[in-house]
Fold:
Amino acid sequence: MKQIGVMVVSLAFLAMGCTSSTEVAVGERTTMKVDPVYNAGKVALGEVVNAEFIVENTGDKPLVLGDVKGTCGCTIASKTEDPIAPGEKGFIKAQVNTKGFSYGPATKGVNVIANTTPAKTELVVKLNVIK
Structure:
């Protein structure tokens, strides 16, 4: 019963339009600029690669990086705090552990879900594992 009361109060605030300038209304879309490829070059087997992607909000609404995940277990991704104001920059970091990789070229992905169109953006870390 207590949960229903909290939901009613929350809905009342939404209906009244009580949002701060940093909050994002549901369905608001914006645009972002990001170089989708980080080239790490030659990397020794077992080395951890730290890649950083700079994200710029090029739209007129706050940018929310909702979900940021590596596409495999060897890639851990993190992001800047949300939201990113129009004209401001943030970052997405990817940490790739090359332990167990084969020698030669490799690519590892990071999927980003944001309030952009399209909603999904794939970032890629390229590297060449050497002895």
